[in-house]
Amino acid sequence: MDSKNEAMVRSAYALAEKAHTNQKRKSGEAYIDHPLHTAMNLAKIGLGARTITAGILHDVPEDTDVTIEEIEKKFGKEIAALVDGVTKLGKIKLRGTKEENYLENLRKMFLAMAADIRVVLIKLADRLHNMETLGSLPPEKQERIARETLEIYAPIANRLGIGDIKARLEDLAFQYLEPKNYEYIIKLSATEQEQRKKYIKTVVAELKKELGKEGIRVVDVFGRAKHIYSLFQKLKKHDMNIDKIYDLVGVRIIVPEIVNCYETLGIVHKKYRPLVGRIKDYISLPKPNGYQSIHTTIFGPEGNFLEIQIRTKKMDDEAEFGIAAHWIYSENKRSFKDMLFRKKTKVPDQELVWIKQLREWQNGLGKDDQEFMEGLKIDFFKNHIFAFTPMGDIIDLPEEATPIDFAYRVHSEIGDRAVGAKVNGHIVTLDYKVKNGEIIEILTSKDHKNPSRDWLRFVKTSNAKAHIRKFMKKEGMI
Ligand code: MN
Fold it and tell me: Residue 229, exposed/middle/buried by CB under 10 A (0-12, 13-18, 19+)?
């Protein structure tokens, strides 16, 4: 951080400390402890000075006499907008049914994100610290907050690919929601892990030797434990039988380049026999949130199963820090990157489309921190609309897209069979221009397909155009 940014962060801290004077957290700590940890959580996932500054100030307008106008005067429009965004996102509460609330809040979060993703990241960092200090609240509050965390915040962290925050939120929430199961899993994995620690050490040593012999440059090889909540989820699937869980502990191998991942896989399989059907290549076929890695389960020494994950440093950082890592890699950590990758790695073809677009768009910007941070305001999204299916799935559309574009984006059959559309429950015409945040329901015909030439006049996406033309050709209409 340069001296100008450091001065900004320090000045925010001074303001927040003064504004929150005499306020205490329920835990008895001085209030400033909370925004400070929020800011530290943001720094940990690699965010820059402006986001950290806004993180320190995030509770100031709501809980103190200092107004958003004063923040704007002192720190500028951008930081004021971030703080205001966090305040407005406000206290998300669960009312009504579980599902309704989850969807409603997910929508809210995504719309806030469309304006500026950093607002959502600050909210996640804020929630993480609140979860870390949840013990000092009364039990009924603990339960509500833990439930919100598990049902809203952790899935959003997951959607943004921030595995590190997702795992920590889930484990903390699990501890409060199902204390008995939590204790059980902790004990279970502790005894299991004690036994396996030595074992892992052996495997790591063997692998290092083998990879060294084959001339693979290894960035890191280490043992890792599955996080508590995901282990519990897995156990439930397997009748709570821990012997059926092959990735309770595992080994992760970090190598410089993608090509080394496949070389390493070959070497691992030469040394240890793989378990059939357990080789997963998420490098060629990334998970929907962009996750990339190779997984394989092997018969280790003494015939024990062991999961081995192979990935590049960049993939590892992206798995832990998600969208934040994309920023780190596209911008200010260039020298760090050069250190790790002798050559430039190829940008993977399949990843979250909008992250990819975001990155491409950011690559066009200057490398200066100022411009970079302004870029994060995601003006990029101004030509994008997020609409929702009645089930809460998010459909990304260009500006002025119509229900027909939406229908074809969901599924070509739905497009072909569309006869009408409802927006937020009201019937609209098929050339209606969809707006951000609207819930679109497509009415379809069971009996026949009916794309018409008319549709070509108003659809916006090439996807919809292609499907309509294809249908007309087949029917001999063109
Ligand atoms: Mn807060």
Answer: buried
140 C-alpha to center of ligand 1: Å?
A: 19
Contact 369, 49 (CB under 8 A): yes
Return the CATH number at 454.
3.10.20.30
Could you give the residue numbers annotated as active site? 62-63
- Same domain for 145 and 90: yes
Q: What is the DSSP letter of 97?
A: -
Name which of 218, 221, 257, 253 is nearest 342 in CA terms.
Answer: 257
Residue 375 lies inside a defined structural domain of this protein: no
Divide the 478 residues of the chain into consecutive groups of 10 and give the mean pLDDT of each group: 89 96 90 96 85 96 94 95 83 55 62 71 94 94 90 78 88 96 87 76 92 91 85 87 74 94 94 89 82 91 86 85 54 32 30 43 38 39 69 77 95 94 93 87 92 94 91 86
Structural domain total, the chain = 3
Residue 20 structural domain: 3-178
**Together in a domain, 266 and 169:** no
CA distances from 251 to 117, 154, 226 (A): 33, 25, 11
**Domain for residue 118, yes or no?**
yes
Identify the CATH number of the domain in which residue 229 sits.
Answer: 3.30.460.10
Q: Are 364 and 427 in contact (CB under 8 A)?
A: no
pTM greater than 0.85 = no
Q: How far apart are the CA of 59 and the centre of ligand 1, in A?
A: 5
**In this structure, is residue 56 part of a structural domain?**
yes
How far is the centre of ligand 1, averaged over its atoms, from the C-alpha of 148 (Å)? 15
Q: How far is the CA of 16 from the centre of ligand 1 (A)?
A: 12
